[in-house]
């Protein structure tokens, strides 16, 4: 446990805004990268299948590096750890665009994923600590701020792509800017430390059986998110012949609907309940997937990606809320769901690339559409077990990212 320190209400309020800004910076890196994937693919001279292979390396890097984040925070304190890890993440944005070939791209994305995972763990741990000190839920809004950051990053990337800008220059400017902003925002977060005699947190725990079914729902939502975020621009360019600027704009449309839905999602869940919200969201995402697969031109596909983002936005927080109610050890269940959902988000881009290389991108997104349909079918596992649980889903789901990064 973190050593107890009494913070004033005003100090906690400032810390909340600071950690929200950190989430925004983290998301901006992802958005900046995603919109320039077509440029990076062309510059490195890789096929869709090779790109899919390269996009598996962030998952490998994150899986190997994430356990280190807890030990780093334990040794240096939460603020110092976050400051260093976030700076490594923002600066790693420059690496993929410098890759001259498939092997260089794999190495760059390994580092990119490792720094992403460690900084994500650190910022979420501080988000949960701030939430606990405030005594009210803030994690849902932090998720929304991550999406806002991804939107801002993808919007800037869209402009750069439309102007035909070199991604190496674009990413260097973005990395330096985001690093400066991140370091400034980190000054405002809580500076908490573990007690001197406390051991470092465990590095891995197997998910309990109660988390597997709930995790499957999270898997469907996060797989669709990862696939859409990393492949929407490529889809419009390769399948519909769109310009670089218009292709990048599809990523922006997806990020926009995700951000809006996450920021207002708690109110929707409080009114309609978790099961109905996910079922309707799954239906909306399925409609979006069908529009992508059947799109005769770019505008329809862009609208489809937007609907996918709208439909899957609240799936992960609700999966964590259900996990917390699923067994005698809520923290272990939440950790299990976190492992499943985060793994889904990391493997989705490479899986889409591998399937596209064997068949086509259209077929790949047909499978994504089937997964979103799974949300409609399986939403019942999120049903609250007690009266009023749906209304408290926001609070229960608040630590959604505390056990591992889920973007």
Folded structure, characterized:
- With 407 residues, the protein is mostly helical.
- It is built from 16 helices and no strands.
- Helix 1 (9-35) packs parallel to helix 7.
- The longest helix is centred in the N-terminal third of the chain and has 33 residues, at 102-134.
- It is globular and about 60 Å long.
Radius of gyration: 20 Å
Give a quick account of the main beta sheet: strands, pairing sense, barrel closure.
none
Instruction: Count the beta strands.
Output: 0
Structural class: mainly alpha
Measure the end-to-end span. 25 Å
- Following the backbone from N to C, one meets helices and strands in this order, namely HHHHHHHHHHHHHHHH
Give the rounded overall mean pLDDT.
82
Portion in strands: under 5%
């Amino acid at each position: 446990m973190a050593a107890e320190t009494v913070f004033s209400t005003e100090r906690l309020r400032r810390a909340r805004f600071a950690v929200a800004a950190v989430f925004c910076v983290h998301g901006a890196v992802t958005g900046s990268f995603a919109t320039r994937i077509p440029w990076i693919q062309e510059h490195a001279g890789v096929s869709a299948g090779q790109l899919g292979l390269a996009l598996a390396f962030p998952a490998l890097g994150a899986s190997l590096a994430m356990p280190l984040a807890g030990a780093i925070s334990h040794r240096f304190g939460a603020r110092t750890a976050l400051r260093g890890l976030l700076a490594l993440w923002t600066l790693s944005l420059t690496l993929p665009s410098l890759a001259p070939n498939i092997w260089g791209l794999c190495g760059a994305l390994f580092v990119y994923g490792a720094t992403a995972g460690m900084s994500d763990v650190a910022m979420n741990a501080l988000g949960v600590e701030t939430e606990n000190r405030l005594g009210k839920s803030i994690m849902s809004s932090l998720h929304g701020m991550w999406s806002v950051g991804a939107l801002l990053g993808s919007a800037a990337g869209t402009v750069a792509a439309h102007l035909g800008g070199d991604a190496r220059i674009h990413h260097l400017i973005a990395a330096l800017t985001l690093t400066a902003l991140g370091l400034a925002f980190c000054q405002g977060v809580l500076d908490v430390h573990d007690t001197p005699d406390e051991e470092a947190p465990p590095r891995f725990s197997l998910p309990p059986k109660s988390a597997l079914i709930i995790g499957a729902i999270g898997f469907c939502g996060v797989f669709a998110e990862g696939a859409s975020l990393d492949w929407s621009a490529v889809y419009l360019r390769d399948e519909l012949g769109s310009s670089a600027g218009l292709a990048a704009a599809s990523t922006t449309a997806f990020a926009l609907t995700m951000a809006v839905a996450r920021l207002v999602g708690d109110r929707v869940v409080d009114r309609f309940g978790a099961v109905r919200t996910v079922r309707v969201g799954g239906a909306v995402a399925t409609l979006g997937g069908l529009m992508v697969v059947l799109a005769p031109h770019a505008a329809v596909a862009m609208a489809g990606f937007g609907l996918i983002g709208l439909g899957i936005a609240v799936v992960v927080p609700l999966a964590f809320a259900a996990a917390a109610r699923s067994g005698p050890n809520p923290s272990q269940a939440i950790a299990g769901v976190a492992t499943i959902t985060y793994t889904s988000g990391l493997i989705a881009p490479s899986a889409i690339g591998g399937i596209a290389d064997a068949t086509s991108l259209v077929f790949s997104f047909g499978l994504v559409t089937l997964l979103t349909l799974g949300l409609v079918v399986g939403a019942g596992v999120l049903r609250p077990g007690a009266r009023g649980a749906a209304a408290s889903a926001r609070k229960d789901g608040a630590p959604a990212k505390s056990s591992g990064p889920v973007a």
